[in-house]
Amino acid sequence: MHWLTDALAYRPHANSRGCWAPTSLANFRRFSCGLSDRKPVKLPVAELPSYNEVTGFLFSAFRPRPSICPHEATATMPNLSLGQRNLQPELMDDPNLPRDEHELALHGLARLNRCSGVASAMYRRLKRLAMTRENQSLHLLDVASGSGDVPLRWAKWAKADGWNLQLTLLDLRSVAIEEQQRRAHAADLHVLSLQHDCLQSPLPSGFDVATCSLFMHHLENHQAVQLLKAMRKASDGTVIICDLERSYLNLALVSVASRLLSRSKVVHTDATLSLHAAFTMHEFQTISQQALGHPIKIKRLFPCRFIATIDEVASKQPMPSFA
């Protein structure tokens, strides 16, 4: 445990430009690589680092550097407290974000989604739903789709599995709409992409299921309630939500993963801001009950996320009673 106690004693420092010195990563690697060179040492329990010390160090070691770009000036880094949501504007929400940086961030998020396995977890639920239908087909609305990487993977898998998935993808930014169509064309898929503000305009209706991934944490509580109601109305009552879960462990994991899997400084900054803005599972259950009037099925999804399934048909079934 010497490497860990030494590492916890280290604190990254600011250089003359006010940026976090990159030696934090080098020191962390030096400490961890030295693990195999040391003999096992038994420490009293009191000397072992606590869970919060470990995750606090990991976050400090990989904490984003302060922004020096003009369009990033509005983003401020939150503190380490996760007792409640801390919702701040993210860089990708900035309408003045340069196109090349937006595209790089979309690619970085797609890579994070692919490595997290979130697409397969949601696809299994969609496939089960499709198999219950006589025509084995689903008309799906995906809200705030970004690059569309997740729903487009569902469509590819559905095509390979022999059932029909029709996609309608919504996003506010034209850059995202263009990226959706580029990816769909490359995969030989036909999807409908619409530039749409899901908070200011009613959602299109007539869908079998509505989905949303990594968008709820961008919203105030009342906006999340509004969107849940709109998604239920847009579908036949079946809604699937996947989002980040706020915790110290997930904060450390997201901070590390965003740097390992993306070169985008927008992703590096927004990953931390997103975790601070995310719901806990209990908070999202409370929001959902406020919006829908009944409990929902919600499950932790490793790494760093939860998945919530809203099925109006199932929710209306009478619950068994016990004497």
Structural class: alpha/beta
Strand order across the largest sheet: 3-2-1-4-5-7-6
Shape: globular
> How many DSSP-defined strands?
7
Mean pLDDT across the residues is: 80
Give the number of domains: 2
Assign the CATH superfamily of the largest domain. Vaccinia Virus protein VP39
CATH class of the largest domain: Alpha Beta
Termini, distance in Å? Answer: 54 Å
**Helical segment count:** 12
Examine the secondary-structure arrangement and name the CATH architecture of the largest domain.
3-Layer(aba) Sandwich
**Percentage of helical residues?**
40-55%
Largest sheet: 7 strands, mixed
CATH topology of the largest domain: Rossmann fold
Present the secondary structure layout.
Blueprint: H1 2-9, H2 23-33, H3 51-61, H4 99-116, H5 118-131, E1 137-143, H6 149-161, E2 164-171, H7 174-186, E3 192-195, E4 209-213, H8 221-234, E5 238-244, H9 248-261, H10 265-277, H11 281-292, E6 297-301, E7 305-311, H12 312-315
Parallel strand pairs: 1-2, 1-4, 2-3, 4-5
Antiparallel strand pairs: 5-7, 6-7
Helix pairs in contact: 1-2, 3-9, 5-6, 8-11, 9-10
Give keywords.
13% strand, seven-stranded mixed β-sheet, disordered C terminus, 323 residues, Rossmann fold, single chain, 12 helices
